[in-house]
Amino acid sequence: MEIHQEHRTTIAAIATPVGTGAVSMIRVSGPDSIRIADRLTGGKASSTMPRLARHCRILDGSESIDDGLMTVFHAPNSYTGEDSVEFTGHGGMLVTREVLAKFLSSGAVAAGPGEFTQRAFLNGKLDLTQAEGVMDLISAQTRLSLRAARSQLDGVLGKRTTEARDELLETLAHLEAWIDFPEEDIDPQTGHLLRSRIGNVLSKVDSLLATADQGRVLREGVRTVIFGEPNVGKSSLLNRLLGFERAIVSDIAGTTRDTIEETINLHGLPIRLVDTAGVRESGDAIESEGIQRTVRQIEAADLLLEISDGSKPKPVEAILPHTAAKRLRVLNKTDLGEHPSWAGESAVRLSCSTGEGFDALSEAIREALHFTDADWGEHAVAINARHQASLVAARTALTAALELLDDTSNDVELAAIDLREALDALGEIPGKVDTEDLLGVIFSTFCIGK
């Protein structure tokens, strides 16, 4: 496999997290990987069987810096598609840095964020969606987000977009052949069959676009805003859901002045809990600003948990800003008894003091969000914002082509132009067209060493 000339340098980085542990790994990749490793191990790298771990010492002249296991990978049978070496040694911060320093002083250069995975993409080991799946896998916080990341890393998203692109390419090729060689009597397929094939691609694009909300939720979490009047137990609810004392709890109304945000794992979904200032009229400038922030959080919410004190009379219904968020009523302080005014009210009843009712709240949140295993199916495909933008562009172009073909007075060459635009937009997703300007943005989010 040919390596891109602009990436002929040999790079090295620490591939394990910063800190003290049992082991640490140095990863090296590039044409001089084995030669550099030979220099530091007394020639053991070049004589090591590929993909078999071998004990060795990292030497500085006659002095041993560290000893551990070295694994050698020959191109193209490596993660990056290049010659690569991985050294696993002792996990101290100082010794790991000294080993890396020896690789760098021996001819390697420090790798940038995501540079190993970027080389894997450039050398055809991964498509762009799989490369993004690597980072999703690393950052996954819940079972469902992990499953979606694995699906993307397995190439499910890339395969589906490539299938749609290939189908469109075949349709466009036939249409352009008729445009370029009308004397050959090629069937232009400008009637029902052509529209049907374009419509089939459009359906595939729409099915992927439908996963945009799921993708956002899995990567960013369900933005869940806890709001209500002062001193009804909003901070106590947050602390109970988190399992630790994150917010200050006090009988003094207005204790929470700013929003507090934390994430929990609920049935495999990341839930971003936002505790807000109590909503009331206030002459305190700081508390008023906190209330305004509450309003802004409600406007951006996916789910609202409106909490009230069930032991007190039912208050006047709160006037909320415009929001499409789902809304759950929560009655707190059930251990103090329920006021008659709440009779017949549809709500989750619980006590932050005793913990009673929290299983019911968990189930109510799950049902409100409709994100169960059955909703996801066996192969979760969750597009990100980049995929969504490309799919929207493809959908716009496909729709425009269909509109042109619906009017027989239009020149079919105009429809071909729109189909080419759709083809390019679909190709951007797995990286089958020129995406060099995207690479810096995508791989800058990776950790060093990956």
Question: Overview of this structure, please?
Answer:
The strands form 2 sheets. Strands 3-4-5-2-1-6 form a 6-stranded mixed beta sheet, with helices on one face. It is flat and about 85 Å long. Mean pLDDT is about 85; it is low at about 245-255 and about 280-285. β3 (about 55-60) and β4 form a beta hairpin. The protein is of the alpha/beta class and about 450 residues long. About 45% of the residues lie in helices and about 15% in strands.
Number of strands: 12
For the biggest sheet, the summary is: 6 strands, mixed
Q: Give me the number of helical elements.
A: 15
Question: Could you give the order of the helices and strands?
Answer: EEHEEEHEHHHHHHEHEEHEEEHHHHH
N-C termini distance? 21 Å
Report the mean per-residue pLDDT as an integer. 83
Overall shape: it is flat
State the strand order across the main sheet: 3-4-5-2-1-6
Strand content: 15-25%
- Rg, rounded, reads 29 Å
Output the keywords.
6-stranded mixed sheet; 12 strands; alpha/beta; flat
Topology, element by element:
Blueprint: E1 11-14, E2 21-29, H1 33-41, E3 54-60, E4 63-73, E5 84-91, H2 93-105, E6 109-110, H3 115-122, H4 128-139, H5 143-153, H6 156-180, H7 192-209, H8 212-220, E7 222-227, H9 234-242, E8 260-266, E9 269-275, H10 285-299, E10 303-309, E11 326-332, E12 348-349, H11 358-369, H12 373-376, H13 385-406, H14 412-428, H15 436-443
Parallel strand pairs: 1-6, 7-9, 7-10, 10-11, 11-12
Antiparallel strand pairs: 1-2, 2-5, 3-4, 4-5, 8-9
Helix pairs in contact: 4-5, 6-7, 6-14, 7-13, 13-14
